[in-house]
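A quick word before the example. In earlier lectures we treated sequence and structure as two separate objects. From today on, think of them as two lines of the same record. Here is Helix-turn-helix domain-containing protein written that way.
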Amino acid sequence: MEKLYPTSDIAEACGVTRKWVQSLGQELIEHEHAQRVGKVLVCYESAIDYIKTRPDGRGRPKAK
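And the structure line, produced from the sequence above:
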């Protein structure tokens, strides 16, 4: 079983804000990089690479 990480840890590793990672929640879930535990979004480690190399080429907001 893969370890799950809070959005704050993923945001820090990617150099973006926690709020921005949370706004990607549904997209991360659809691509199987995250899941909801109750109302809380938790991510797999693969979310870091996904966020850094978004497949659609959309730019990231500036780091915090």
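Notice the following. The radius of gyration is 11 Å. We will return to this example when we discuss secondary structure assignment.
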